[in-house]
């Protein structure tokens, strides 16, 4: 389903801070997956990431070897010489999304937990909602990243369409709605609990139960 985001021109992107954290590898596990899903369909952010990566490389070469501890070379050589365990093949983003198992939680609404490492209490999941499906006003105890994979999601006056990225923090209370006739499918990463009421409560229950 992610293929549908290719060749789109997203209008809503991760913040510069989020992209920098992605490049630095400092995003929470799972949240980086949602940014990766955005990057798979956004040439503009791909450019930014490449620029940030080359800036990071320049900074490292400026620091030079003198900043390394005295035994860094020895430890590196030791690591190179040591037998390395074979790296487990990591599933691609599309494989991860395709293997997620749908569970219907309300008429027209399904949720599918994405099997990827997360911090305790965090969740990464796909959510599909048909036109007219119930949504619930809810707050967050932490950050929420959303990548729209298909359809369109309304937040106040803003419409997020396939390819768009939406980032909410813990201060935001919102009530997303489905825009248009197409089922809306989004990839979410959420930090901590959501308010356990209505549809959101059923989603949280379904995810905890997978
Ligand atoms: Zn973008």
Concise synopsis of the structure shown:
The protein has about 210 residues and is of the alpha+beta class.
Structural summary, described in words:
This protein is 32% helix and 21% strand. With 210 residues, the chain is an alpha+beta fold. A hairpin with a 2-residue loop joins β5 and β6. The radius of gyration is 20 Å and the shape is globular. Zinc ion binds next to α3.
What is the approximate shape?
globular
Strand order of the largest sheet: 1-2-3-9-4-7
Going by helix content, strand content and strand pairing, the class is: alpha+beta
What kind of sheet is the major sheet? 6 strands, antiparallel
State the end-to-end CA separation. 21 Å
Bound molecules: zinc ion
Radius of gyration: 20 Å
pLDDT below 50 for ≥5 consecutive residues: which ranges? 1-6
Q: Helix-strand pattern, N to C?
A: HHHHHEEEEEEEEEH
Number of E-state strands:
9
Q: What is the mean predicted local confidence, pLDDT?
A: 79
Task: Itemize the secondary structure elements and their pairings.
Layout: H1 16-24, H2 31-39, H3 43-63, H4 72-81, H5 93-99, E1 103-106, E2 109-113, E3 123-129, E4 144-150, E5 152-155, E6 158-161, E7 165-168, E8 177-179, E9 184-190, H6 198-209
Antiparallel strand pairs: 1-2, 2-3, 3-9, 4-7, 4-9, 5-6, 5-8
Helix pairs in contact: 1-3
Bound molecules: zinc ion.
Please supply descriptive tags for the structure shown above.
alpha+beta; disordered N terminus; 3-stranded antiparallel beta sheet; 9 strands; 210 residues
